[in-house]
Design brief:
binds manganese (II) ion; alpha/beta; about 50% helix; 14 helices; binds phosphoenolpyruvate
């Protein structure tokens, strides 16, 4: 007799868990390292899935480029010992085939692959007819269309369970982060795909241990669905990404120190108070829009004046003066310099566009 009600498969249950915590070494190095990491991660009781890079896309040749197929039986063995499902990065059809042959439970597409539609399509084609969840990292460059394109290619291949990993974006001369988080981009991606799981990869955003906890907390505060964090039994001697890895025990402590927030709390008083505050925000946002509209009208008048007197639109001195005053004021109001800069850039651009229209009419 066939069963009428279908139980979710084991991997589906893990996939649906919140927060979903994935951890494991940047790279599988040796059998002992993979097994010991897996066992110590499992012992924390806080990890849901094991990760390891088998094939490593490295920026420069001559670095450790992954142990290759040889590492897949180690992952399978780690799963047998700990009961934790596994995930590995795939970038080619052959890698998909190898991973499937060794019962990898979830595949992920790395940032260096997401940037390349040829590669994403090759992986997607290899996945046709296969029932396996796929995580897709954001592309290295801050381009949501590229990320979206990768999601679409994989979805078109028939993959039902697709998740997003936010691992930050490369930016030239960036120092604080290995990859700048640019949170607003990941949030916009989530807005476009509200039902898709979004997890944060603080390891590749930070590139270093000391801010892993902060970045993780921030993502949880932003209602991310989980974390993927690199862990190694001997972080300093890891064959790749040594500076950002932490031991399983440090990871356990870190996860214990994160404040996990609930999106929904079922207290009426809380909801009523929140509703009131949201109304206030809506009113203030409306007012801001009205004021911005008025500001543009004034900018248009200036545009008319400049046109009549044959003056250029952009007057750098005037702009520097505005920004400088805004920084001072913003500081007193608790508005960060970063926000003021972005806000004024956007307002300025819009203003210039309005003036342009007037001057060329
Ligand atoms: C990784 O997860 O080890 C990795 C290579 O990440 P990314 O694709 O984000 O660089
Ligand atoms: Mn890594």
């Amino acid at each position: 007799m066939e069963q009428v009600t279908q139980q979710p498969s084991a991997i589906q249950q893990v996939w649906n868990k919140r927060p979903l915590i994935i951890s494991g070494p940047c790279s599988a190095e040796t059998e002992e390292q993979v097994l010991a990491t897996a066992q110590r991660l499992a012992a924390t009781g806080k990890v849901d899935m094991l990760r390891a890079g088998i094939w490593k896309p490295r920026t420069r040749p001559g670095q450790f480029e992954g142990i290759g197929v040889k590492g897949l039986p180690w992952m399978l063995q780690a799963k047998k010992i700990t009961g934790l499902p596994t995930t590995v990065e795939v970038a080619t059809a052959k890698q998909v085939e190898d991973a499937l042959n060794f019962d990898v439970d979830v595949l992920w597409i790395g940032a260096r692959t997401t940037v390349n539609p040829f590669s994403v399509q090759e992986v997607a084609d290899a996945l046709r007819g296969v029932d396996i969840p796929v995580l897709i990292k954001n592309p290295i460059n801050p381009d949501l269309e590229l990320w979206t394109g990768a999601v679409e290619r994989v979805a078109k291949a028939g993959i039902k369970n697709i998740g997003l990993i936010h691992r930050g974006f490369s930016s030239y001369g960036n120092t604080e982060y290995r990859n700048a988080p640019m949170w607003h981009l990941a949030i916009e991606m989530k807005r476009r795909n509200p039902d898709m799981m979004l997890i944060c990869d603080p390891s590749h955003i930070s590139g270093r241990r000391d801010i892993l906890q902060d970045i993780s907390q921030k993502s949880i505060d932003l209602d991310y669905d989980g974390l993927i964090i690199e862990s190694h039994i001997d972080p300093d001697n890891a064959w790749s990404d040594a500076k950002q890895q932490i031991t399983p025990e440090v990871l356990g402590g870190m996860l214990a120190n994160i404040t996990w927030r609930k999106e929904d709390v079922s207290s009426e008083a809380y909801h009523a108070a929140l509703e009131k505050l949201r109304q206030q925000i809506n009113h203030l946002d409306d007012e801001l829009m009205q004021i911005l509209g008025q500001r543009m009208k004034v900018a248009e008048k200036i545009g008319q004046y400049k046109k009549d007197n044959n003056i250029t639109i952009l007057q750098t001195n005037r702009w520097n003066e505005i920004l400088h005053k805004a920084f001072e004021k913003g500081d007193k109001l608790g508005l960060s310099k970063e926000f003021i800069t972005r806000y004024f850039d956007a307002v300025h651009m819009e203003s210039i566009n309005h003036q342009n229209r007037i001057m060329n009419s």
